[in-house]
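U., I forgot to send this yesterday:
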Amino acid sequence: MITGVGMVTPLGPGREQTWQGLLAGSTAGRLLQPRDIDHFSQLTDLLKRAPGGAPVDHDEIAECVATSAALFANTAAPAEYAATFGQDCLNNLIAASLADALADANLRSTGISGPRTGCVIGSSKASLRSMEQEHLASHFSQIPKAVSRTANMWHNGFMPDAPLLTVRYLTGATGPSSCPVAACATGLLCAIEAAQLIASGQCDVCIAGSADASLRASVLAAFHRLGVTSRNNDPAIACRPFDQFRDGFIVGEGAAVIILESREHAEKRRANCYAKLTRGMWLTDCTGMTQVDSQGLVVAELLQRISGAALDDPADSDSIPDIFSFHGTATETNDQAESRGVKDAFPTRQPAAFAVKGAIGHLLGAAGSVELGLTLMSLKHGKVPGTANFTTADESCPALLSPEPQFVPSAKTATKLSLGFGGHVVAATIQRDDS
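Result:
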């Protein structure tokens, strides 16, 4: 049972701000300023233009964490957190999302601390800012001026499991934990693993999520060389998922946390429930390290498998979700793979679909968790957000998309699909719980 959703995105520091911005058709892409990213002039020279992205206000996020102390375990005083984890923005993103999710679920960390609460928190990479600081620190002459380092910087910032350690620290959870790394499918995989921990009886509560803050020169330059970022001079309209004139994405920052509980635990405390996570699976596309099968054969296979057991009746092999959330990177072959896979998997009826990267950018390691959270809100409210910047349909990408919100008040099921470099193809189905 999913009882809480929290997130931080370029549209706002919270699930409601993001949801309302998405429904309103807002887009967060903008030209980056020197204060947004180091090495600004060098990156501009490489790209032959000012770089675009979808950043968050990291000072605002740190303030959100500081004012959320009442939601966290008593041992996590604000000053203690700030000294231990709060110097890294990746940790602050997951902490702010955690606070948002706990408030949504009407939980306090003191009520779920202990061995019956697990944590599955991932990221596609460790904190790049901490990595860069460690690099600068290796040049000893730069330490006094360029780098502010503490003794715990390595463990609580540089390592990829730092966001996981942050959540465990703030909640006091001592149950099973893990830090999956599955590129841009990481966040969705985390939610599936969390559900498995509950289904196997190892946890009553499991906190799942992911974070990413990759607006750094190294990442933008690498994606530029790969040819997957948009060349459009206006970042607000640059990312155009499934549009005929799409040419790639812009990078964004963010995080999301999902609270999962066993039915017994949720009902005992009379928790409100978004939905049940009824099925989660993943396959591997072996086309290439950064390529996908544009025919969508692997996507179709995964969706056919997951839809056959999506509803309470496993024999219903034609169970088509009412809502579908695409990965939607606005790259040529990715969008073709997804849309063709969905059409082949659901040949009799296309679900109402949406993709959010035109509005918030590609959040990389955080994309799966944020987009799952928005899929949950879509199912809860019976509304499918419009796909930002979608104006001209591409015949090679058949999908039931709209630039305006679609109303589906009777929707009972939704499926979220995520893809990632390295061949990760992950999908999860959620179902409204009307019991």
